[in-house]
Design a protein that fits this description.
alpha+beta, DNA polymerase, domain 1, hpI Integrase, Chain A, 4 domains, three-stranded antiparallel β-sheet
């Protein structure tokens, strides 16, 4: 008996004798139907070959979807993306199975979009899936145009995932000390701005001369992004203090690597235990990006850390921080004009919780200040390297 997996991930069971064609057996394995069919096959009794199903109309929307799901364009998508798109395409098949795909118009796509207008993200997701389907069909010369490309997305007004504050970072750290798996997972995302799909796959093999070197998991089959970030001292200490896995740093209680879904559920519980029910793993990536912007890093510098290939994606994370920097620049000019006193107290958030005072020396080069332990520090601007101590500790 052999077991094969079809393109949807289902297990199929077959009986095959040497030199003969294999015969499909009914599942599940071990059921009465399976045992009877297997016994018949052993003695040479095979069921009559069923009549072949009628071929689908090669002009139908259903036929187009089936061909798309067999194409290299589909197979290059991440497994999670395939699962999400397959469900939506299956529902569209039920509605448009007999519709000639060439008859799909922008008006029909807009109608489908507006039907889910109360959930704009879902509506836009549907439009994007149809864009991908007909983009492939256009490349294969199956259609003359992409009807979904002409349909605008519904504007979504949202700040996205909540960006962790410095107080929330400390609250999590107080609940999960260095040496725990909860803290190591947190530190991997905080000090690298890595997505959770990368954080759970990082391991000793990715560390080279004090740097993480890896191809980012997202989009690895279509547009691979080579990602390199230094291992900052706080993260190095967290790794050294934790009992990590052999292949990956972050592992479950059983010592096995997490899947994307299981890690998301586990990190949710870790946040809840710290009283941070509104915080998430992706919010850490956003918080680190915003923190780098607050420290004066340019969008190109931040993109080098996050692995973004488009600066507009970085701007989504750093919009609020950029406003704050512009406000600081404007007020520095006001101070230079003599409208305010020359000495000021550095606000606590600028010192990341450290007390001290500072004197403006040159608004274009930064501010000097002292930590509570007496060591000097400096708030740097974008033309200077970032002191890793200012990131979060």
């Amino acid at each position: 008996m052999t077991r094969d997996r079809d393109r949807r991930g289902n297990i199929r069971l077959y009986f095959r004798r040497p030199g003969q064609l294999k015969v499909r057996l009914p599942g599940p394995e071990g059921s009465d139907a399976f045992l009877k069919a297997y016994g018949d096959a052993l003695v040479g009794r095979f069921p009559a070959k069923p009549a072949s199903l009628p071929r689908k109309n090669s002009t139908s929307f259903e036929w187009l979807v089936d061909r798309y799901q067999e194409s290299p364009a589909w197979l290059s998508l991440d497994e999670k993306t395939q699962v999400a798109r397959r469900g939506i395409l299956r529902r569209l098949n039920l509605e448009f199975c007999d519709l000639p795909f060439a008859a799909m118009t922008p008006r029909i796509v807009r109608r489908l979009r507006d039907r889910s207008a109360a959930r704009p993200n879902s509506a836009n997701h549907l439009v994007k899936i149809l864009r991908g389907l007909f983009r492939w069909a256009l490349e294969e010369d199956l259609v003359a145009s992409n009807p979904a490309a002409e349909v605008a997305l519904i504007p979504v007004v949202t700040d996205g995932f909540h960006s962790w504050t410095l107080e929330e970072v400390r609250q999590y750290e107080a609940r999960h000390p260095v040496g725990t798996m909860a803290r190591l997972a947190f530190d991997l995302m905080l000090y690298t701005a890595a997505r959770r799909s990368d954080a759970i796959r990082l391991g000793p093999e990715h560390v080279r001369d004090g740097w993480f070197v890896k191809v980012q998991h997202k989009g690895r089959n279509r547009k691979p992004v080579h990602w390199e970030v230094p291992v900052l001292p706080p993260l190095a200490r967290s790794i050294a203090a934790t009992r990590t896995g052999a292949g990956t740093f972050v592992v479950s209680e059983l010592g096995t690597p997490f899947t994307d879904k299981s890690f998301g559920m586990r990190f949710r519980r870790w946040c809840d235990a710290a009283g941070l029910k509104h915080c998430s793993a992706h919010g850490l990536r956003k918080a680190t990006s915003a923190r780098l912007a607050e420290l004066g890093c340019t969008e190109h510098e931040i993109a080098a850390v996050t692995g973004h290939t488009k600066l507009e994606h970085v701007a989504v994370y750093t919009r609020a921080a950029n406003k704050r920097l512009l406000a600081a620049s404007a007020m520095a000019r006001l101070e230079e004009s003599g409208a305010t006193r020359k000495e000021e107290t550095v606000p606590p958030e600028a010192l990341d919780g450290e007390g001290g005072t500072a004197e403006v020396t040159n608004p274009k080069s930064g501010k000097d200040f002292s930590y509570e332990d007496g060591s000097p520090g400096r708030i740097r601007t974008s033309d200077q390297p970032v002191n890793s101590r200012l990131l979060y500790h």
